[in-house]
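Quick illustration, no need to memorize.
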Amino acid sequence: MAIDAQDFRRFFGSFPTAVSVVTTLDERGEPRGFTCSAVSEVSMEPPLLLICVGKGAHTLPALHSHGAFVVHVLAADGEELAKTFASRSREKFAGRDWRPSTAAGGAPVLREGVLGHAECTVTRAVDAGDHWIFLGRVDAAELHQERALLYHRGAFGFWEPAPEYTHAAG
């Protein structure tokens, strides 16, 4: 049985997912970025991840031209960051604390509202329906100890491990 776009969106919206912001630079060296829910690990050796970018995204041309990007996994307090980067605003970086990446060609590394980031070099771009899939080799990464921001059925939240598992993971 065929599935329509609304049911498809509702189906995948039922999976809690980490919220990420992807940043890069455009052809003029200006920072660009968007909120990305489609991020996945691909390979450990070499370390690869993938991001999916809608063909209508303003950041897409910059990803194609720059050839590098940074994936930021948002911390539980990063909801405002997620909403800003999900918007069509051209002022997403206004007032933001960021530094140029060392491993992703100067792409912005956000310093607030993130639990970690991965600096990536594009190894392949694949045309896939109404999106592009970018495979990125992870050349540098940093992780902090915050809780992750999650998105589930149209709402933001965070995951807290059950107490009986907290001690085992310590």
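The longest strand covers residues 114-128.
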